[in-house]
Write a structure and sequence with these properties.
about 550 residues; mainly alpha; two-stranded antiparallel ribbon; about 60% helix
Length: about 550
């Protein structure tokens, strides 16, 4: 197995780091006890950083034998060969690489990745291997929160999704020309389409590479959709999980993961809500099949059927998409019966009854949701906001019971708080990201249900005063997240909710800076389209909705 295949498998199933080193150390000495920023704002990236940092386009601290970023993620840190000094720092002065050469590598995979089709036992073609490398090294940390486990950081996409692509029959050998693609190729094709679309969105200064990625994006997306439609047409029961069949969960999980990756593809290409709605409806059919099987087996005399962690993770990912899509469009939830939401809210208790208990935590630790990278107790409040909006048709029909629910939710959102974070930069950033969600949820709630005050009082409060306060809280939190270079996996929805309410020139200028930071960090086309929508709102013009996730 060549080292690139080993890299992908290692990232999918990480092991504890074997080389002890201080994460906060620098090339010139140790800074023990002082937390280190992932990337210092304002410093230029080194041309001689390790291959992993250069592929991710991140600042490399140049420690030997492993830089802080690779050590934190338990990656194999590899430096390019140097002609001069014994260390990258010593060879920095000898580097005369022109800027054009640096830009041309933005979308180009490492040379070893381009040669993998000659060496890899998986026989994956070079273009696919390069795109999987891009997903593994770059995208996986941008669309989720890598949970810290000791000295390593595990992205849930690498822990749950990537192994499905690498162990499926479609990863062992590519189909011959003219041969019908197997349904197991679906996840591989979906990941390649998403990675290529992200390269197009994140690319700069390299028209030829962007054009190649654009063609690959269309080719892999077309193949993925054709493979999915072919599987469903030839076998309509392909997504039906039989209650007594215990061997099909893996296959159905592959299909569900593939559809959700295609949702990410649509977001990366602009966030078209029609296409996203079609994909989410298909994913919900598969989820319902899982739930039917789960409840049928609960009443069987055999041992209770437990869904795998990867399946539950995909359920939570679908729920996030469904909620954000509903709030973005002011449209009904796909899970309007709340079947999945009720299941997820009680499934943890079922795990505890089965003897599976969560890992112990230190007092004061913040529990992070890996799907959205937020404090776990803020997401249920956002979910309740979406449910109340659906019940009242987004403020059109407000019953007395609904009005009481709205008042209670507003009270909880106003009183919600987190303990003061410690000195860890990531925790501080997540703390402020949660405050941004809190401010956006309150703005959304006040603006949607402001009419209820007029019906109950002759002198109703002015909602604009409260909204101005929450705008400042939200912008302050966004500024801090940007300064700390924190996780931005799910920040577009609160950013746009806050941005649309900004009235002053200073606030709007700050929004543009934040949106530019978000666009450059995430590399998703829906960020640019979201800014266009905000600009139209500021001018009083109608805009086209995009997926705010």
């Amino acid at each position: 197995m060549d080292r690139d295949a080993q890299f992908l498998l290692q990232r999918s199933t990480p092991e504890p780091a074997s080389t002890p080193a201080a994460v906060g150390s620098t090339p010139g000495g140790s800074t023990a006890g002082v937390p280190a920023l992932k990337r210092r704002i304002g410093l230029k990236r080194s041309r001689l950083g390790c291959l992993q940092c250069r592929q991710r386009r991140k600042k490399c601290q140049l420690q030997m034998p492993s830089c802080a970023s690779c050590l934190q993620r338990n990656w194999a840190c590899t430096y390019p060969s140097t002609s001069g000094g014994s260390t990258p720092m010593a060879a920095r002065a000898e580097s005369v690489e022109p800027p054009a050469a640096v830009e041309s590598r933005a979308l180009a995979p490492p040379a070893d990745v381009r040669r993998v089709h000659e060496l890899s036992p998986f026989a994956i073609e070079a273009s696919k291997k390069a795109l999987l490398y891009h997903f593994t090294a770059t995208i996986s940390d941008l669309i989720s929160f890598p949970a810290r486990q000791g000295a390593r950081c595990d992205s849930p996409f690498l822990e749950y999704v990537m192994p499905l692509a690498l162990t499926s029959p479609g990863a062992q050998a590519d189909a011959q020309p003219g041969e019908r693609k197997h349904v197991s190729d679906l996840l591989m094709l979906s990941l390649c389409a998403f990675a290529a679309a992200h390269q197009v969105g994140a690319g700069s200064g390299n028209p030829a590479a962007i054009e190649d990625a654009s063609q690959a994006q269309l080719r892999y997306h077309t193949d993925a959709v054709k493979t999915l439609l072919s599987a469903l047409n030839e076998n309509p029961d392909a997504v039906a999980l039989q209650p007594r069949d215990t061997g099909t969960e893996e296959g159905q999980t592959v299909v569900l993961a593939s559809i959700l990756v295609l949702v990410y593809y649509e977001i990366a290409t602009g966030g078209d809500l029609v296409s996203i709605g079609v994909h989410l409806s298909g994913a919900y059919n598969i989820i319902n099949s899982f739930l039917d099987s789960f409840f049928a087996r609960m009443h069987s005399p055999a041992a209770p059927y437990m869904l795998s962690k990867k399946t539950v993770f995909l359920f939570k990912l679908f729920q996030y998409f469904d909620v954000i899509s509903s709030l973005s469009q002011r449209a009904a939830l796909i899970d309007h019966s709340m079947r999945l939401s009720n299941f997820l809210s009680t499934y943890s208790k079922l795990f505890e009854q089965a003897g599976v208990t969560p890992a112990p935590r230190r007092p004061g630790d913040v529990v992070i949701d890996p799907v959205i990278g937020l404090a776990k107790d803020i997401w249920p409040l956002v979910l309740r906001l979406c449910v109340i909006c659906n019940k009242t048709y987004f403020g059109q029909v407000i019953s007395q019971e609904a009005s009481m629910e709205i008042d209670l939710l507003e009270l909880e959102l106003r009183e919600w708080t987190l303990a003061e974070p410690d000195s860890d930069v990531e925790v501080i950033s997540l703390h402020w990201a949660a405050k941004v969600y809190q401010a956006a949820a309150l703005i959304y709630l006040i603006r949607t249900f402001s009419s209820r005050h007029a019906a109950r009082s002759t002198n109703p409060p002015n909602p604009d005063e409260d909204i101005r306060v929450f705008i400042q809280i939200g912008l302050d939190g966004l500024s801090r997240v940007c300064t700390l270079d924190g996780n931005m996996a799910a920040l577009l929805w609160p950013v746009l909710i806050i941005a649309q309410e900004c009235k002053t020139v200073m606030d709007r200028a700050l929004v543009r800076v934040i949106m530019d930071k978000l666009r450059r960090r995430q590399g998703m086309a829906n960020v640019s389209k979201g800014l266009e929508l905000v600009e139209h709102t500021w001018r009083g013009l109608p805009g086209q909705f995009v997926m705010f996730g």
